[in-house]
Specification:
Blueprint (H helix, E strand, L loop, with lengths): L2 E3 L4 H13 L3 E3 L11 E3 L1 H20 L4 E4 L8 H5 L2 H4 L1 E6 L6 E3 L16 H7 L10 E4 L3 E3 L9 E3 L6 H5 L1 H8 L5 E10 L14 E11 L3 H4 L1 H16 L7 E5 L11 E9 L2 E10 L3 H10 L5 E3 L4 E3 L2 E8 H12 E6 L2 E6 L10 E5 L5 H11 L5 E3 L5 H11 L3 E5 L1 H6 L1 E6 L5 E5 L3 H10 L1
Parallel strand pairs: 4-10, 20-21, 20-22
Antiparallel strand pairs: 1-18, 2-3, 5-6, 5-7, 8-9, 10-11, 11-17, 12-13, 13-14, 14-17, 15-16, 18-19, 22-23, 23-24
The protein binds adenosine-5'-triphosphate.
Adenosine-5'-triphosphate (ATP) binds next to strand 11, strand 14, strand 17 and helix 11.
């Protein structure tokens, strides 16, 4: 059996997008109307993977720790939130228009974006080669926040914003959450939720969308602890290890510390966890040492006291934070790209998703060898579904059914055959090796549990 992981190529990306649509992971949003750029719908298998990733993140960051608590805050917040945070003034991207093709581009992406009229050239190259650099307009700033109006009257006083990140409400609720959870510094507050950015050029499938989900955590520490880098390094390691625990290939992950001139003036450090996507190495998650800038901004904007009183030392201070910020959709894309492989089984080419069993949308499929064996196979599926994400499939040859399950990443297939009727045993086939083992029915649940934990 020969195996090759998806190479770093556009073709690989096209194949992945086609698989995602064909097997119901991700569809373009409102496709019957021609779609809407930057918006995506997750289908039956996609939503399972997404939910698994969110649960695995929540377990790792909140449930299995005693020093991080969770919240779920509203998408629309008081508009002053975004004034204090600096988003109204400066959450913008540099924008240029091409006077020829009328395309609108992020100015810092024109040397990698293809020209809509001449896709063989980048926007930059096209402007230079065509009628001269003057074809692009001057750069201007474009605020990425979506605006809406709250209430029946639509005027400047009713303007509100769809949040462009989930973490600001963690800061505005800091005092409430710290009080009710009786957490002592150092501790963290985590949240999973939708964010919206009116991206100038949404692209690379779900990598850069206009509506997406984030998994963010703010870990509050004493300001002097931000000098030592201890917590910053701790969280970089925790987050890196989490991707490895999902089975993501180590050689495709990178840690990229930001250069001093990339850092915001208040930040003491920022490291991106990057992944080698088929379209290039790009940011997956950011871990930032943000000083106490955010809380200080909200103290100034609201006039409320958001400081922390340390009972032990009788000190009062505004905590600094370490932020970890990750997109659910980008994590989905990572595990999807990372799991995709093509190999050959018995001289036949197969497409396979080597999902980690905890990430796979279906963990075990029950396949009767013949429709005559339906009854017993259905009973097994009904038993197993209480413990695993399971599927039942009786349509087509057994080989075809194995391929179907391989293509959606099901790690185990259980075949119920005529021998099963006689000796209460089944064949379990392992996705990656295609090896088969005979397992007694009364051992099946434990056998699968052990395999999936391994
Ligand atoms: P960029 O510079 O690429 O626009 P950013 O550095 O502003 O992104 P952050 O604000 O740090 O991004 O966002 C934190 C995380 O949220 C990112 O690492 C990514 O996983 C996710 N994310 C941000 N923007 C998008 C988007 N438009 N689509 C999908 N995920 C996103």
């Amino acid at each position: 059996m020969t195996t090759s992981r998806a190479g770093a190529s556009r073709a690989a990306m096209d194949e992945l997008i086609s698989l995602a649509k064909r097997r119901g992971f991700v569809f373009p949003s409102s496709g019957i109307y021609g779609g809407i750029n930057g918006f995506w719908d997750f289908g039956p298998l996609g939503v399972e993977v997404k939910n698994n990733l969110k649960k695995l993140w929540w377990d790792h960051m909140v449930r299995f720790r005693s020093d991080v608590v969770g919240v779920d805050t509203s998408i629309i917040a008081h508009p002053q939130t975004w004034v204090s945070s600096g988003h109204v003034k400066s959450f913008s991207d540099p924008l240029v228009d091409c006077k020829v093709c009328k395309g609108r581009f992020r100015a810092d992406h024109i040397d990698s974006l293809p020209c809509p009229n001449k896709p063989s050239l980048t926007v930059q190259a096209c402007a230079k080669e065509g009628k001269g650099e003057g074809e692009l307009t001057d750069i201007r700033q474009f605020n990425l926040m979506f605006q809406t109006h709250v209430g029946a009257v639509q005027d400047v006083s009713s303007v509100a914003y769809l949040r462009p990140e989930t973490c600001q409400s963690i800061f505005t609720q800091f005092k409430n959450i710290q009080g009710v959870s009786r957490q002592k510094i150092p501790f963290g507050i985590a949240q999973i939720g939708k964010s919206f950015r009116n991206e100038v050029t949404p692209r690379n499938f779900i990598f850069r969308s206009r509506e997406f989900e984030q998994m963010e955590m703010e870990f509050f520490i004493k300001p002097e602890d931000s000098e030592s880098q201890k917590w910053y390094e701790y969280w970089i390691d925790q987050r890196y290890q989490w991707f490895l625990s999902l089975g993501v290939q180590k050689n495709k992950l990178r840690l990229r510390p930001h250069a001093p001139d990339e850092l915001a003036h208040y930040a003491k450090g920022c490291t991106d966890i990057e992944y080698e996507f088929p379209f290039g190495v790009s940011e997956l998650e950011g871990i930032a040492q943000r000083s106490n800038y955010d809380l200080t901004q909200h103290i100034q904007g609201s006039g409320k006291d958001l400081s922390y009183f340390d009972e032990a030392t009788k000190e009062k201070f505004v905590p600094a934070v370490i932020e970890t910020s990750l997109g659910v959709d980008r994590t989905f894309l990572t595990v999807f790209c990372d799991a995709y492989a093509e190999d050959e089984v018995d001289g036949e080419k197969r497409a396979i998703l080597r999902f980690h069993p905890q990430v796979a949308p279906i963990q075990v499929a029950i396949l009767p060898l013949s429709k005559k064996l339906k009854e017993g196979a259905i009973k097994i599926e009904e038993d197993l579904r209480r413990y695993f994400r399971s599927d039942y499939d009786e349509a087509g040859s057994i080989g075809k059914r194995y391929r179907r399950q391989d293509e959606v990443g099901t790690p185990y297939c259980v075949t119920y055959d005529f021998e099963s009727l006689e000796n209460q045993s089944v064949t379990v086939r392992e996705r990656d090796t295609t090896q088969q083992e005979r397992v007694s029915l009364d051992q099946l649940k434990n056998y699968l549990s052990d395999k999936m934990q391994a």
